[in-house]
Design brief:
Blueprint: H1 3-7, H2 12-33, H3 38-47, H4 65-76, H5 80-99, H6 102-113, E1 119-122, E2 140-142, E3 145-152, E4 163-169, E5 179-185, E6 189-193, E7 211-217, E8 222-223, H7 229-264, H8 278-310, H9 318-352, H10 360-368, H11 376-389
Parallel strand pairs: 1-4
Antiparallel strand pairs: 2-3, 3-7, 4-5, 5-8, 6-7
Length: 396
């Protein structure tokens, strides 16, 4: 009996909890060497979590959005880079589940459920300025095929991926907002590394280096309708990204907080961590408030998106879009602020040194990226515009 079948009866959260020790054991080395977390990803592929949101008819467990955000938090408590790779893979799975053709889903989803395919997102482009729903490189209609040539400056886990979801301008004559998403299996592409090494401040294990892709694809590998990627983005890519990323950031910050609480309760605590100190108590309280606010808002927005899907309602309305944007911005800002507060609270030796028993320095660097991972500035501008349209001011 396969490991996936044998463990299927465990809850997703239990499966994730069983992997935390392994992820944590490799996290420091992965960060130090800025390398892909191959051991952790292999364990995830074999765990039954790789196809968490794949429907049961395709061999998956048909996991919910609540289970997705719960698993993301748990995995991030072990290794945030690994959790983000899994979260972005799962985001791509959702787009396939909701918008792929029947023939493509039958070919691909069972393989994802079996842990055979790591999906990577190819949506960045140097000329697009980070705008998700525009593209420069154009599809070319060939005889019974779609030809693509695409360069992307950032592809999370791309050099280790087995499949790609790629955004392209629909044709050479199309406007840059007429974007088509396609699925490409790695064996259908020529994959080259783009210029530049991956040596970032944080999130070093995501190995989000650039790639250049070329290939001819069958027409049934278009995701959604041609030129209508915006629908896929609004209904799938953006909601899943904001939910899953926020859950990952919260999981990492929560783990850091738990480590500091454990140290404060131990005999090895530094003198600066005096549990009888009013200043220590106040700082702990403020950090806890930030984590509670992110947790509560994440749960509320997860329920809202779940309800929209269950009732067949679009999320493309001002209030829901505001809630998704607020979640991402708040999670990015408050989880980083929480870890920053923990560094200050713990002091130089415990909070700042890379040799500390608690990896606060790594959490600090990793969570610094949260506000840059699809820029908060761009989301704030969009949210301000949407706020004018939401006359009822429907709060989450």
């Amino acid at each position: 009996m396969s490991q996936v079948t044998a463990t299927r009866r465990e809850s997703p959260e239990d499966l994730a909890s069983g992997l935390v020790g392994l992820l944590r054991s490799h996290a420091a080395e992965v960060d130090r060497e800025a390398r892909f977390p191959a051991e952790s990803v292999k364990a995830l592929r074999e765990s039954g979590l790789w196809g968490l949101t794949v429907p049961t008819e395709y061999g998956g467990p048909g996991g919910s959005l609540t289970e997705l955000t719960g698993v993301a938090q748990i995995l991030a408590s072990g290794c945030l880079s690994t959790a983000m790779i899994w979260a972005m893979h799962t985001q791509q799975v959702d787009s396939l589940v909701r918008y792929a053709s029947p023939s493509l889903t039958e070919r691909v989803l069972p393989r994802i459920a079996a842990g055979e395919i790591l999906l990577a997102s190819v949506t960045t482009e140097a000329a697009s300025g980070g705008k998700l729903t525009t593209a420069g490189a154009a599809l070319v209609d060939g005889e019974d095929c779609l030809r693509l040539h695409r360069t992307a400056p950032i592809v999370t886990g791309g050099r280790h991926a087995d499949g790609f979801l790629i955004t392209m301008r629909d044709s050479a004559d199309a406007a840059d907002n007429r974007v088509t998403m396609v699925y490409a299996d790695r064996v259908q592409l020529e994959c080259d590394s783009a210029d530049g090494a991956w040596d970032p401040l944080g999130m070093r294990g995501t190995h989000s280096a650039g790639m250049e892709l070329r290939g001819d694809l069958p027409p049934d590998q278009v995701i959604g309708e041609r030129g209508a990627f915006r629908t896929v983005a609004v209904e799938s890519q953006i909601p899943l990204a904001h939910l899953a990323w926020s859950a990952c950031w919260l999981g990492a910050a929560r783990s850091a907080y738990a480590d500091v609480i454990g140290l404060l309760r131990s005999r090895k605590r530094p003198s600066s961590l005096d549990p009888a100190s009013d200043l220590v108590a106040e700082r702990l309280a403020r950090i806890r408030i930030d984590l509670e606010l992110v947790s509560g808002y994440l749960a509320r927005v997860t329920d809202e998106i779940t309800a929209c899907r269950a009732e067949g309602r679009s999320v493309d309305n001002p209030a829901t879009q505001i809630h998704l944007n607020v979640l991402k911005v708040a999670a990015a800002e408050l989880t980083f602020r929480a870890v920053d507060g923990l560094v200050r609270l713990s002091g130089l030796a415990t909070g700042y040194l890379r040799t500390s028993a608690i990896p606060l320095e790594r959490h600090f660097r990793d969570l610094r990226s949260a506000s840059l991972n699809f820029s908060d500035d761009r989301l704030l501008k969009a949210t301000g515009g949407l706020a004018v349209l939401d006359r009822s001011v429907r709060l989450a």
